[in-house]
Amino acid sequence: MAEYTKPIPEPDPVTQPFWDGAKVGKLMLPRCTDCNRVHWYPRVICPHCHSMNIEWFQASGEGRIHTFAVQQRAFGGWKDETPFVTAYIDLNEGDRMATVLRGVDPEKPEAIEIGAKVRVEFEPATDDVRIPFWRLDNS
Amino acid sequence: MPSDLYKAAAIVGAAESDEIGYMSEPKSNMRLHIEAIHNVSEQTGIPISQIDGVFAPGVASQIAEYLGIHPKYIDTTSVGGCSFEMHLHHALAAIHAGIIDVALVSHGQMGWSVRHTGGRGGGGGRPAADPWSGEAQFYNPYGFSGAPSNYSHAMNRHNYRYGTTPEDFAHIAVGTREWAMLNPRAVMYSAETNPAGGPITVEDVANSRLISWPLTLLHVCLVTDYGGAILITNPDIARSLPTKPVWIAGAGESQGHSNMLEMEDFTATSAAASAATAYKMAGMGSDDMEMAMIYDSFTVTAGITAEMLGLAPRGEGHLLWKDGHANPGGRLPINTNGGGLSFNHSGMYGMQLLVEAYRQLSGTAEDGIHGDPGKQTNAQSCIVNGTGGSLSVTGTVVLIAD
Description:
Number of strands of chain A: 7
CATH class of the domain at 10-116 and 221-365 and 374-401 in chain B: Alpha Beta
Oligomer: heterodimer
């Protein structure tokens, strides 16, 4: 595997189930068992109802573009990929994730549509960490 | 009906470091703080030894030590550019409670010079995200590279939701530049003082270098050096000084999020909430505001904030500039110093807002440099709104002339 030069997240005890899922291609999300709402990023308390009863479940891996921008300038490993398209994704199950969009042309931002369907995929950073990215769903 | 806190304290002086903008030699954050503090002490006649509350983002304790004073109240709230409006809010409460008599709010930041010192002199900022934080694991991996890379997402969403365009927001840069051309201390005052200075057009903004689509360079604030300090006292002291008091009629603060990952509505900020608190305290409303100082880290920040403060309907903030109301000669002057876009932006610009608001409402906005009417308006009230982080946190202050 080519060396991954971009920032590599470090799983911690709270987020480990997410990274375990990512490693085998599953999008795991935290959900409150009292109010049934999903939150992102993972926490030990539900930010909606403040229950501490949180479970993990496998999500659909589908969502829509909430908003996006094209980055002309970046640092570290991302510098080599400029320009690239950052975006916030509304998850089908609720709440929102940040990402870099795959399958879009950063030279033609006018062609990218807010509200367009996207699907998650996971890119290997190390043997243990695969990072979620979202790709335009043309199906 | 105003609350008990209405006019419970006043800003009695506001000063800058001896030099601001692009410096002849690098001055550390601390030197910029100290120059401004010394200058505001001279201006008001209040000895530094009489300061009993010190408010500064991250470094209140270090400043007090450097000055050799032993304050009763130390507030180091550091949440970005709105920290100073929050300090003023906290100082108002502490003065009203009788805990302190003289509050110092101070700023020093070598935002530009620090690039040439390898970071030396520019310490005291916020630490990097903890590796186990949500930010480090679920935001940092995606190549965002500072404020412009975040705020562009808000501009795009505003364009989508309200049918606005980057050109609409470009009018904010153009109108704000008109104010800078009346301020000799503004970095973009004239083409004689800076090759990039002087008048600009909507086309200039659109054709400037792309930074983070849809933001081009002239939608983005400057990066400069600045030291600024204000003194706030109780009414008795305020009335005994040679300087004019500018009264704090209302203040409020609020937060939407810390990281943009948790921004619910990309076209709104907590300024609606912080302004509501400030207006209520003052017993005033948006119609009572005769001018505004609005944090303009980006054109989109100013446009959205104007909407949040009730100065324009949702989706129409930019029209205040496009229609000329916010510009010199308009009915609601906004960012009369030339803004973060064209005057000065050191990184945490909230102090520059307060210094200019004090000068406007005390009739000293001409700084004694020009001698012509320049940027001085006849406004008797001003709403000041700082925005910190990624459209994250806001502090709002309503000020009125004596």
